[in-house]
Queue: 2 jobs
Job 1
Amino acid sequence: MCGITGIFAPGHDAARLAFFGLYALQHRGQESAGIAVSDGGTIRSHREMGLLSAIFDEEILSGLSGHIATGHTRYSTSGSSVVVNAQPLLETTEIGDFAFAHNGNLTNTDELRDTLSPTTILQATSDSEVLAKLIVESDGPMMERIASIMNRARGAYSVVLCTRDQLFAFRDPWGVRPLCLGTYGEGGFVVASESCALATLGATYVRDIAPGEILQIDKHGLKSIVVPTDEATGLCMFEYIYFARPDSTLNGRAIYMARHEMGKELAKEYPVEADVVMAVPDSAIPGGLGYAQQSGLPFVEGLIKNRYIGRTFISPDPTMRARGVQLKFNPVVENLKDHRVVVVDDSIVRGTTTPRIVQLLRDAGAKEVHVRITSPPIKHPCFLGVDMATYDELIAANYTVDEIRQKIGADTLGYLSLDALIRATGRKREEMCLGCLTGAYPNVPAAHQSRELAV
Ligand code: AMP
């Protein structure tokens, strides 16, 4: 995961717009962030490890003057968590410099790396740099260079790229990671991973960028081409389940409504006699509300989240991740004591969070704890940009649902069915990447995928 944004806004301070755009996308990555800006002549950039608020201050933003920008907030899935891997990456070609921000994960990085010239020096360890270098080593104008890599790079890549006088945005032919387009003021455009960033900036959402589409934006306006492909699309289902912000819209469907519907479907599939419904904040709240509405049970806040502690999962260090769960939530005893509680969460991945949540609820006096998950069991890793753990770490790859119920200490456990999940998104099964749920990925080489499941 990562959050990316691109700004083309004549007469406006693009760095500041990129900064606020990234702020709205910070949930997509918290390890490092950066902004590169062009004033039409020179590209300047700043990138560092850490949260945006710690990286950028008035002085740094004022030094980044210009009307074209790309911004990136990173969550590492390929390459380690160090500053050389922070983006935007800056590259030089014979047609000029460019800054490059990538969200996703390539699945043929090694193969692509082997095609690079032996004199090319890679500074970072990420697949993003290989993608950027392919553009450097291609021929022709930028649009042609991008089109040429679209036919070679496999996996997930939503990218924004700025040159001295143009902004480009493109999405891999499968459309795995989201990317949308908005207009801004007079002749301005904003591109962002999620529509919530456009709303934050006061930009007007126009549409999602299509799979395989390349946009070129400059003083002459917007030009678009779609690279032809026979591949089926594969938008990541996990964006709907967990990753995207609920106030974003993906392919015309508000994420909030999709999650609310998932909760309603879950209540139909796994009803239970209980006193209250609660959700694990924040990501499961729409699902919890949907469950409550469908079941007719009251929705309560059973846990209060300390919002100043980041997403536990996003920290790549497992010890910090484990400790983070305890630091993050406090029970509201009055809503739980002597109650039969339905607790809705969006996913169980490694199985670190859920047992702790169940224990917290029991310690607060809950009489029964019924866990309801608004996704099917996650049985397979993600090769396309979500830090989803390995087969060995994934609890559902190694245990049956009843074994998981025992491990998490719940009275009952219900996972949403795949059919109901797909219905809730309003999309067709064949348009989605369901790799983490079914093991069938749209564009991952078979060698990556094979694994006999224990159950
Ligand atoms: P786990 O503790 O590994 O089972 O993770 C499940 C919890 O982490 C759930 O509460 C989810 O809301 C959240 N979660 C699931 N997937 C991710 C992810 N890729 N990044 C961050 N958080 C996640």
Job 2
Amino acid sequence: MFKKILIANRGEIACRVAATARRMAIKTVAVYSDADAGAKHVGYCDEAVHIGGSAPKDSYLRWERIIEAAKATGAEAIHPGYGFLSENEEFAQACSDAGLVFIGPPPSAIKAMGLKAESKQLMEKAGVPLVPGYHGSDQSPTLLKREADRIGYPVLIKASAGGGGKGMRAVDKSEDFDAALASCKREAINSFGDDAVLVEKYAQRPRHIEIQVFGDTHGNYVYLFERDCSVQRRHQKVLEEAPAPGMTEAMRKQMGEAALAAARAVNYVGAGTVEFIVEQRADGSMNFFFMEMNTRLQVEHPVTEAITGLDLVEWQLLVASGQKLPLAQDQLRINGHAIEARICAENPDNNFLPATGTLHLYQKPDCTSFERGAVRVDDGVREGDAISPFYDSMVAKLIVHGRTREEALARLDEALAQTRIVGLNTNVQFLRYVVRSPSFAQANLDTALIPRESAVLFKQEPVGLVMAAASAIARTLLDEKSREGTDPFSRRDGWRSHGVNVRRFEFEFQGEPAKAELTYLHDGALHVTVGDVSGPLVFSASPKGIDLQFSGQRMTAAVYRQGEVDHVFTARGATHITVIDLLEHAGHGPAEGGRLTAPMPGKVVSFAVKAGDKVSKGQALAVMEAMKMEHTIAAPADGTVLEILYAPGDQVAEGAELLKIEV
Ligand code: ADP
Ligand code: ADP
Ligand code: MG
């Protein structure tokens, strides 16, 4: 076995690989970019080498630099993780040319499966069932259209070099074909530098079911059963599970053997995944067709680990060091059911637009409160870390296991409820809605689950203004009480010190202004009015947050304040409310001014002012861009610009001071 390996990746997968290496007493070398200098994976490995700038092309894709780092640190092998260089046959070749072991398949297998069209031609020869379609090399638009007409609509046009859900267009009718082809080719050339496409039948009620395969250098092959990854957004996976609901023993065997035929056809070695599209016919029958093979470890590999009790990274290391597969096909068993949820920094209500920001609060489920092994969290971040615009938006993966799917599902809902993130938009709440949706709960799976259930998935409000406002008021009062301590002269409950017994609150909730009124009654009780709801408010601090009773409802809320925003976490779900406490504001006066900082990590697009300019309150000073969104920085008060601290195009960290003004 290797004594030391280099992990040519970052984040969650780098930590995942390092964890197994550590267990096997293998030393690890991390690589990192500028943006990742303080990242979790860097501290987690035994050594770390800086390899360049933040953009992937300046660091994680610089394979000469990575090979140098491996040589310099005495690593014997390189684990590529997924993404980045994992499916780059030149990198795999360069590793072996440099005398290093690439922990993955031989370059020839990566190449054979690299292009979807070529791999389909190969699979056809190997007798693996293919989706009816055209995957030839003639790319003339007339021919492609004729093929689409022959296949019959709807069809899917796919970039042969595509990946990550990009470069695909569904076409419903012949008239739409030309425009879709042109747009698909444009995206393909921009994203992959290759505009070759294939055309295939768009499967009916499709499910994505994939088979995990493993090969060793001694010619042994096994399949580690299937994963159902049908729940997708933008053709990208969000929830994955194993085994696939409704899978019969006969079909599992057929699919497993087809996957092994695919692997054998390219002399595969190591971990790989053969992806199939499964068509569900009206009569209940299911047909499976080869889609592509991913020649690497897959993001969702933990669900396979959960049902087999195996460590796939350990198997990768064993195979790469020349050992035989530890188990034969008839020694492999499925135990229970596992589901993985990908927690991503994104905004589900805004077309899943990726989000960036700092993890001001990052609370993970308490794995020890569940049965042993029932809940696992894989991540590459810690509280305080930023999700930057440079890399993938995945924050963490929650993996749950149960004896049955129902048990796994209940654990997933609880684990999601315990996942608390403040500082950026995530899909945590959305995932809870998906998990509870009738289709997912009843395992009525297909790739259109999210659009079909959209009525219960989007723009939902689990808590509501009334209870959100009650939580925020309770939180404000508890805070004040703890700040005041026992000093009677600093008490802020207006009734005693100022003779005022009514206090007003202003909120912003779901983009709408709202008001509440709090009355301190003479017996010390509190009466609250929010909109047209009015009644006594009773609350007390508890270990789980604040126990509240208001307007006939009882709720426990954990409230985290970030600036003026209260993030309210309850068993029903999470929400946030902006609190403008008028009493508090009256004491403090207008915003302090002076320092103007970046609200999130991103790029400076432009400055609208220069040093010496007089500006008035609310005037736009600068524009920042983070991922696909622009943010305007406005003057908090009238004043004069003293100094501009960055130039357009500069990358800035969250909280970086952009310019100074004097107010
Ligand atoms: P990528 O390389 O981007 O992963 P895939 O070929 O694996 O591309 O397809 C991604 C997703 O697109 C699949 O998981 C599935 O949801 C959908 N898809 C692909 N091919 C078909 C098809 N023929 N019919 C219906 N859906 C498909
Ligand atoms: P899979 O096919 O394995 O389910 P994807 O199709 O989403 O997963 O492809 C893997 C993707 O993982 C890459 O395209 C990349 O965007 C992303 N990725 C790469 N490295 C990391 C990482 N360290 N952490 C999270 N995601 C990553
Ligand atoms: Mg795929």
